[in-house]
Structures are given as structure tokens and as C-alpha cells.
Amino acid sequence: MTPDGKARCRRTGKHLDESHLRTALELAAVGVPPLPLRAGKVPFGNCRACKGNACGGRPNMKTAGPCECASVCHAWAAATTDPRVLTSPAWASTWREAEAVAYHPGGAGLTVVDLDDAAAIAWAREALPATRTVPTTRGEHWIYRGAMQSANAVRPGVDIKSLMSYARWLGPGTGTMTELPGVVRALVVKEPPTARPAPLAVTVPALAGGGECRHRTPAYLDRGIAMAEQRITEARSAVHTTVYRTFLAVLSAHGGCGCLTDAHIARLFAAAQAKGESPRHCTDAWANARTRLGL
């Protein structure tokens, strides 16, 4: 950075005073990781070494930052707050070609509710708490504090942009930013798949003395399902493995007496989908757990 406040390319020493780079440095200074967008307002393609993800990409593509090749690679994962990277020779020509600046909301601990049209805006004003808003070409961005899973088309004209996603930078907006509400998080929780496993039709074994199966006691079963939901919800890594093992534990405890119902299964599937599992993954994990236990 020179005394006049302009960035220089570290290789050539030339000024890089394009407005997009200035905007990116301003965002980085306040902890918002930016990235350049090319024509069509989409990220630049991977470099030759990373084309087709030949380099293996970033682990699970769940963390932002430049690829080790130091180029503007892997879309949203290129976003960074490091000014040395933003003004590096590898990024210099990209900024000159950029048509816009984007940022990684999840990397800044934010969630953008992208409202695409007037109907979506009208819905948001009725259903969502007020927060900071930014006008877009056709609608508005509503920005909340807190990160979550991203998802497109959660309802007509509404996308959620946060973790593992990017949003175009259109200015700071107006209004006071508020905490991410549960109603927004709930938008990405899909309904359990219509073709979910049928209720377990297992004959209840008779207990000694003719007693009743303890799993049919509502408190016992509900406590087990609640603990399973909590285990899935609190998973911070290896979510797919956690879901499978939790399904396996539930079936080990309750699968042999036929007390599980569609409602119980739906609760487990909903918890898994809230952590990013697809309906198909849920169905496969449940089927694999049943097979493992011979049910």
C-alpha cells in the first residue's frame, strides 16, 4: 500500500487502483471476505492447475480462502480478507477484468435472504423480522447476523446465501442488522421425503410375565428420539457419518419392537436435513442401518 492509499502489484509495482479492488480491500478490512466476479456476475474459472478440480480442491469445500496455487480459484472459496492475497500478482489481472465484487456471507458470519421480485419482498415484510436491506436489480437482499446452510428456491423468488455461497456486493444497505431468526433457518428444512421408509412392521416379542414393551412408554421413546435429534444437530463435522450412526443407534434400541412410527422417522430426517443431508442421503442411511441390523 502506498502513501496515497493505493495498492500496488507486488510483482510489477504498478498501481492497482481499480474501484473493484478498492471495494474488496475495504470489505476485507472489516472482516468481510470478498472475491471478484467476471462477465455474467459469476466467479472466475479455476486456473489451469485446478481445472476440473485436478488439485483436489479445498477439503470438502467448506472453508474459504485461496487455493494453494494462489489463483482466484474454487468460486466462493477464493474469498479472503488477506490484503496480500487480494493485491498479489496472481489476482491483479483478475481485478482489472472483474465486472463486480462479491463476498462470502458465511465467512463473515452473515446470511443473505435474496428476494428476487416484488412478490418475494411482500412475503418477507409479512413473515420476517426487519433487518438491514440492500436494493438489487429486481428485488432486495435482507442481511442477518448469523450463518447457516445455503439453499436456492426455498420458496418462490427466495434464495438463502450464507455458508459455501457468495452474494454480490451492492453496498452497505440501510437499517439495523438483526439476529438470524428461526423462521429463516426453517426455510431450508425440507419436508421428509414422500417415499420415506415404511413403518417398521416387526412383531413385538412377548415379555416374561406378559409385561408391556417398555419402548411403547411415550416418555422412554420420546427421550430417545430427542437425544438422537440433539446428537445430529450438534454435529460439527462428519455429519453424514453422525447421521448414519445415530440412525443405527435408534434402530438398535427401538427397531426390534415395532414402536417407531413415521412421525419419529420424520423427526430424525428433519434434523439430518437441517444439517445439510439430502432426502436421498437420509433414506439411504436409514436403509443401510436397517440392513446392518437385519431388520
Order of helices and strands: HEEHHEEHEEEEEEHHHHH
Alpha carbon gap, first and last residue: 66 Å
Q: Catalogue the unreliable spans.
A: 1-7, 9-17, 192-212
Task: Using the alpha-carbon principal axes, give the shape.
Answer: globular
Q: Tell me the number of helical segments per DSSP (H or I, 4 or more residues long).
A: 9
What is the beta-strand fraction? Answer: 5-15%
Q: Output mean pLDDT.
A: 80
Tell me the helix content: 25-40%
Oligomer: single chain
Whole-angstrom Rg: 24 Å
Index terms:
295 residues, four-stranded antiparallel β-sheet, disordered N terminus, alpha+beta, six-stranded mixed β-sheet, 9 helices
Quick structural summary:
It is built from nine helices and ten strands. It has helices at residues 19-29, 83-86, 89-97, 118-127, 182-185, 218-233, 239-254, 262-274, 279-293, and strands at 34-38, 42-43, 100-103, 110-115, 132-135, 140-145, 151-155, 158-161, 167-168, 178-179.
